[in-house]
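Fig. S4 source data, part A: sequence.
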Amino acid sequence: MMKGFEMYTKRMAQLVLGIFLGVAACGNSWAQKFEGLASTPQMGWNSWNKFACDIDERLIRETADAMVKTGMKDAGYQYVNIDDCWQGERDADGNIQPDPKRFPSGMKALADYVHGKGLKLGIYSDGGATTCGGRPGSRGHEYQDARTYARWGIDYLKYDWCNTQGLNAEGAYTTMRDAIAKAGRPMLFSACEWGISKPWEWAGQVAHSWRTTPDIYNCFDCEFSPGLSTGLGVLRILDRQAGLRKFAGPGHWNDMDMLEVGNGMSEDEDRAHLSIWAMMASPLILGNDLRTMSESTRRILTNPGVIAVNQDRLGVQALRVMADGPLEIYAKPLDGGQWALMFLNRSNQPVDVRHDWKAEVLTDGLSNRSVDFKRTVYRWSDLWSTKTGDTSVNLQARLAPHSVLMLLLTGPTKPQGV
């Protein structure tokens, strides 16, 4: 009797172990997003803001060329991302194919070309049966599509949320995360469900970044087309980041959408736009035509000091420390005891800055960092000009409409009064 019980127990243990190994082998329950990607916010380019569905392989090749030629690659931009409308039909086996007229050479050849430039290629899909542009989405084909992308040599997937009626966002994005893990090729996974289901609360283990708002529009302070198609200007997107900074960090970022620098705003607005995205540790994904951009746009987008603030390895999103009418101050603690400060003029009129460093202690509870300028002096440098100074004297400046003063604080240099 005892021998029979032991045999039964052994058999049950083998069965449980077999079930466990089977589940582990399928990769679903134990899959993770690829680590080591997006340790700082990702930098690159995306086709949508400027070209929407008007894309083809020539544009992507020329953009890769321009990214190298214009110094974007050297500045840190590395992803060349194809957005919606690259898809053709699925073949008889359900495998997604690129549009044969727009991408006649195929995606593998295009990836090889981009990789040959020392860059990485990104692609787009959607959690629904069709994409926002009406092309085939990945619903029901997640594992099949991820294998296809891996075979092509894709490095980045932007995953949208159109035509997803009846789907649970966390479940759908987790399925695609697991599919990418199963495919075996490291891909940065960018979730784009517009903040509807509060992805900052669940996407940290699922994606490397997640959109926090509806789509951006190339204006500084505007909003149009209410509903899911809402377009938001720079300030409206900034305002929706309140309360989200605790969810961001290395490998998991609040994504404020792609940049509109070079797409029609003023130079002051473009500088402010890039500064805000840098301070908020948002991915820096270019949205302009790199082939024809002006020299002023190129200089803005390659500003090394502003990019360094965005790419700081501490990975702390800025906090707003003061709001006085149209003037706001944001502070971002940086690695090595440094700080970045941004003075933002939200108004259509010039604003005078008269900042007494010693009036308040600068404190960030999230990073457990603070500065008492009564006791220590920091040097500062203006990241958009050659001006320098220190915190021993009050800061005075005049900000143009829709502009910023962005300072890098280094030190402390000495005790105050010495």
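Fig. S4 source data, part B ends here. The longest helix spans residues 2-26.
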